[in-house]
């Protein structure tokens, strides 16, 4: 069923993804990727993730759009080998090697800081999007997506193998987010309250008891082993040490009077956590104190980073810049 809010369908298709596709008819021609079209208005179109590589800003989004910028104001679209919606992008330390992932189980690779991209995986017949990724180093990365997809490479993407973690993946819940906490642990958040942690760089995974039975869309480290998780209807929880405090009661709720679902999050240099989501709502969290703001355009936002003296966010209306002295809602 089609939705009016198309950006939501693209950004978080796993929330209502179609069942896995039936095997392709014998003799049917394989679906081949088509390169993204260069479009002048791409910086104002639907964008789903953004990162500061240390060398430049890179944003990805609908129709295979990949944009780069040195200052966050002027953006240039670079060529991409697919038109599939790209949902996440991340780089290794140094800002040269990175990956982007998205719909049609797309995995793209760059080794020149995002100037050029090569296609490493394309499986449209699966009808399963990748939703997030975590780059461990220039050769290793983990990608996660719908129906329990979790694949890993340790050879720069020459091969991608499904991760063997039945305690996390057997329910085939959608995996919406993967991040690295400040103590080095890896953390996954997903559908139906799914939470999991790995103390050994993703070699083994531990399923955690969840305080919430609906979807989480993201997680962000809060220092040391601590983590903050966010999901539907403004749901917020923190845990100081989820690896050693695994019970549902170890998660402390943060009271939030705004029920806008939050999709993207980041920790700022000053220690505060920033989150963005529906209706252009920007949420700043310091300890247990919350401030809400609204972006100038008021349209849904999907990702945010601290940049310069303010914030840089992307979403339905493309790139948006804002100082930290946003007008309070």
What does this structure look like?
The protein is globular. With 329 residues, the protein is mainly β. It has a 4-stranded antiparallel β-sheet with strand order 1-2-3-4, with no helix packed on it. It has helices spanning 6-11, 166-169; strands at 47-52, 57-61, 66-69, 76-78, 86-91, 98-102, 106-110, 118-121, 130-135, 141-145, 150-153, 161-162, 175-180, 186-190, 195-198, 206-207, 216-223, 226-231, 236-239, 252-253, 262-267, 273-277, 281-286, 289-294, 301-307, 310-315, 318-323. 3% of the residues lie in helices and 41% in strands.
How would you summarize this macromolecular structure in one to three sentences?
By secondary structure, the protein is mainly beta.
Describe the SSE topology.
Layout: H1 6-11, E1 47-52, E2 57-61, E3 66-69, E4 76-78, E5 86-91, E6 98-102, E7 106-110, E8 118-121, E9 130-135, E10 141-145, E11 150-153, E12 161-162, H2 166-169, E13 175-180, E14 186-190, E15 195-198, E16 206-207, E17 216-223, E18 226-231, E19 236-239, E20 252-253, E21 262-267, E22 273-277, E23 281-286, E24 289-294, E25 301-307, E26 310-315, E27 318-323
Antiparallel strand pairs: 1-2, 2-3, 3-4, 5-6, 6-7, 7-8, 9-10, 10-11, 11-12, 13-14, 14-15, 15-16, 17-18, 18-19, 19-20, 21-22, 22-23, 23-24, 25-26, 26-27
Give the % helix: under 10%
Number of helical runs?
2
User: Uncertain runs with pLDDT below 50, 5 residues or more?
Assistant: 1-23
| Beta-strand percent range | 35-45%
Largest sheet, in brief, is: 4 strands, antiparallel
> How would you classify the helix and strand content by structural class?
mainly beta
Overall mean pLDDT: 90
Helix-strand pattern: HEEEEEEEEEEEEHEEEEEEEEEEEEEEE
C-alpha Rg (nearest Å): 18 Å
Shape category? globular
Neighbour order of strands in the largest sheet: 1-2-3-4
Number of DSSP-assigned strands: 27
Question: CA-to-CA gap between the ends?
Answer: 34 Å
